[in-house]
Amino acid sequence: MRGVTSTSPQPAPTNDQNRVNLADVTPPIALGPLDGRYRGAVAPLVDHLSEAALNRARIHVEVEWLITLCNGAPGVDDGAVVPGAPTLTDAEIAYLRQIPATFGADQIAELGAIERETVHDVKAVEYFIKRRIAVAPDELGDTNLPAASELVHFACTSEDINNLSYALMVRGAVVDVWLPAAEALADQLAEMAREHADVPMLSRTHGQPATPTTMGKEIAVLAHRLRRQLRRVAGAEFLGKLNGATGTYGAHAVAVPGADWPAVSRAFVEHLGLTWNPLTTQIESHDWQAEVYADVARFNRILHNLATDVWTYISLGFFTQIPVAGATGSSTMPHKVNPIRFENAEANLEISCSLLDTLSATLVTSRLQRDLTDSTTQRNIGPAFGHSLLAIDNVRRGLKALAVNAELMADDLDHNWEVLGEPVQSAMRAASVAGVEGMENPYERLKELTRGQRVDGERMREFVAGLGLPDDVAARLAALTPATYTGIAARLVEDYLD
Q: CA nearest 230: which of 163, 159, 134, 302?
């Protein structure tokens, strides 16, 4: 057009030269949401599954192994496993055990500096402990502890230390953090199930109106499923090994041929509270980890089922959400209260399951006697549990903000009298078996009455009255409504929800 100048949209100006590099900001900015936005919900896992927790566990294992070599394996030897090793006093043992107990920010930085020199994480732990043994006389006075210095990491491969450390870490994360949170969620669901055990609700099999149930019974099903998985997780075995570079006790047997090394190894692993694995390559086979992660992933998937069901009940109006004061549901639609807790949980459960599935699949395989795929993979155990824990937290918070809309559910039931076709035709079948005439083709007759069309209470009662059923059966069906056709749902909650 004359007098109009057409121009293409221009990109917004940038000045990369003067832009702040967020990687250089102090304090450091988290790359991922678990260490940033959601830190508060997953912080308890840091004490168990972080890199610092791994190094603390390594120090703990190394220290306990040193004590065992000097003072004997519990229940196996009364004296030193390695001849000539000094017998450690209570004060010396306490000094050693304080090394992992006091592992904090300064020690983390020191160990990091050592690792930059060794370019080997477990060797750095060995040197870190030896430094403290070297200065033990300054704190303990007259001590033989420095004479035991070369027994730190004695006859061990890195995996002897790592497998035990990861077993301790995962056990702590599961037992102390994840299980209590998951069990609290299951208990919360069970309480909701009992509270709403007799609140009738129309079922929707395949999304279509179906035999009524109660809200409490449906919640009880999910609570029961989750608790079954929790029992499996609670009964998990956490395995460990200490048998050298290829699982043969080669260095052990050559250095100290007189020791019963399998007995010492078993006593030591069990002393740590783990289950001893007698047959391994260089690595502990990690099968137990795959089992735990599979069970946690299955719990996740059941919880995902709960989140999608609750989301659907909210969309149907069966649950109303209690608004949080000051919260915004939509940036443009002021009326909305979005089911964000359940949507957030869905996404986090999917991420957690992806990681757990990868861990399970990867950790059970190792080329020949050793490769390093497990080392990289296991560093993602924390995020796998973190996303699950975050989902649990979101579901718990979401459930607390729900109220059952019994009035709407009752209205929904009253608009679906056709669901009584099931009990009527079943009563006709029973009457036919009892010899009552005129009960032919009960299913087909109810199908003709109800399929694809609405039936109100009056029409259903008219149909029942014209069947010629025995008086007691006819009276029972005439009194039946969709809201009272819930079978023994409430009793099932009371009797079988543990």
A: 302
Pairing verdict, β 239-240 and 275-276: parallel
Q: Which residue of the set 6, 206, 331, 335 is catalytic? A: 206
Out of 120, 315, 330, 426, the active site residue is 330
Query: Is-contact 404 319, C-beta < 8 A?
Result: yes
Q: Are strands 200-205 and 275-276 parallel, antiparallel or unpaired?
A: unpaired
Tens-digit pLDDT profile for residues 246-290: 999 999 999 999 999 999 999 999 999 999 999 999 999 999 999
pLDDT confidence of 325, banded at 50, 70, 90? low
Instruction: Look up residue 327 and give its amino acid.
Output: A
Q: What is the DSSP secondary-structure string of 244-292?
A: -SSSS-HHHHHH-TTS-HHHHHHHHHHHTT-EE----SSS---HHHHHH
**Active site includes 153?**
no
Residue 333's pLDDT is: 47
pLDDT in tens, 106-128: 999 999 999 999 999 999 999 99
Active site residue 330: yes
Task: List C-alpha distances in Å: 276 to 170, 172, 268.
Answer: 16, 17, 9
**What SS3 state is found at 403?**
strand
Domains of the chain from N-terminus onward: 47-151 (1.10.275.10), 159-323+337-407 (1.20.200.10), 417-481 (1.10.40.30)
Exposure class string for 247-262: b at 16+ Cβ within 10 A, else e: bebebbeeebeebebe
